[in-house]
Amino acid sequence: MQFDFRIPRQIDLMNVNEMKLQTITAQVFERRATHRSIRASWNRGFAALLASLMCFAFAHCDRDEAAAPSFPKELSAVSTPQEGVPPHFRGTTMDPYWPATQSPDGYPADLRRLENFIFTAHDAQRFDESRLEGKYTLVTFFFARCSGICPMITFNMRKLSKRIARQSDLQFVSITVNPDEDDPSALKKYRGDNQITQPNWFFLTGPRVTIYQAAREQFGADVQTVNGRDSLTDFVHTENVFLLDRSGYLRGVYRARGMLDLERLIKDLEALRAIDRKLAAR
């Protein structure tokens, strides 16, 4: 008698499927456990990092200002625009700035101001910062043999002068950017050629370093030579006119090519006069 010990195929397949199911189930649980472990490790790491940052922050709270990070003053200075008050200009970026006080004693040190200079006028007289005290000053840059924008700017400034009736507290200052050639006699000739006779308009020359430093650092004006290193055969210079208050602080920048922006200059000048009258009445 012979016996058949072969397992029926149906039973074999059932066992195989059951084994596969068990394997897959085990893999799922294993992956879930791995994910939980990773998540737990990440949470512990994040908590440690957060704790370290908090410790670092609190550890630096008690340090003095010298140890604190420094930022450009242009980014940390805050002022509120004041209606009817022409701004000052602050820092390397010439940001408009309204001081909380109208007294120069409380002004920040980096406000734009024309100071520490000695120039020579067309009449060969000394012109230094003391000549700015108590006067509103309109400043332009030019050079005598300029055949481009200089004659036009000078012409527009003459027209502007006629629009301002009272000038006892006002002066015009034109600074040459070619001091090597523009001596007092050349400046005097330029005045005559442009029919300028008013006594409160001064044409100035001086050391080139002083002039260029004032133009760039105090007025943010573009002044540079184009051809030649020392010959200074060509110049590029600003076409703006700058308004200084009675303490020499920069209070306005205006385009001098046309009269439209110069009308704004007249309004700002009158605003400064009104402010100073109120201060004087206190």
Question: Would you give an account of this structure?
Answer:
Helix content is 41%, strand content 17%. By secondary structure, it is α+β, with helices and mostly antiparallel strands. It is built from 6 helices and 11 strands. A hairpin with a 5-residue loop joins β10 and β11. The protein is globular, with a radius of gyration of 38 Å. The strands form 3 sheets. The protein has a 7-stranded mixed β-sheet with strand order 4-3-7-6-5-10-11, sandwiched between helices. The chain has a two-stranded antiparallel sheet with strand order 1-2. It folds into 2 domains: 70 residues; 203 residues, Glutaredoxin (3-Layer(aba) Sandwich), CATH 3.40.30.10.
Name the features:
Glutaredoxin, globular, 282 residues, 41% helix, 6 helices, two-stranded antiparallel ribbon, alpha+beta, 17% strand, 7-stranded mixed β-sheet
Q: Kindly report the spatial arrangement of strands forming the biggest sheet.
A: 4-3-7-6-5-10-11
- Which outline best applies? globular
CATH architectural group of the largest domain: 3-Layer(aba) Sandwich
Largest sheet: 7 strands, mixed
Q: Which fold name fills CATH's third level, the topology of the largest domain?
A: Glutaredoxin
Share of helix, binned: 40-55%
CATH superfamily of the largest domain: Glutaredoxin
Q: Mean of residue pLDDT? A: 80
Q: Given the helix and strand composition, which structural class is it?
A: alpha+beta
The radius of gyration over CA amounts to 38 Å
* Number of extended strands: 11
Classify the beta-strand content into a percent band. 15-25%
Q: What is the level 1 CATH name of the largest domain?
A: Alpha Beta
Low-confidence runs of at least 5 consecutive residues: 7-14, 61-68, 228-234
Given the structure, what is the number of helices? Answer: 6
What is the string of helix and strand elements? HHEEEEEHEHEHEEEEH
- Tally of distinct domains: 2
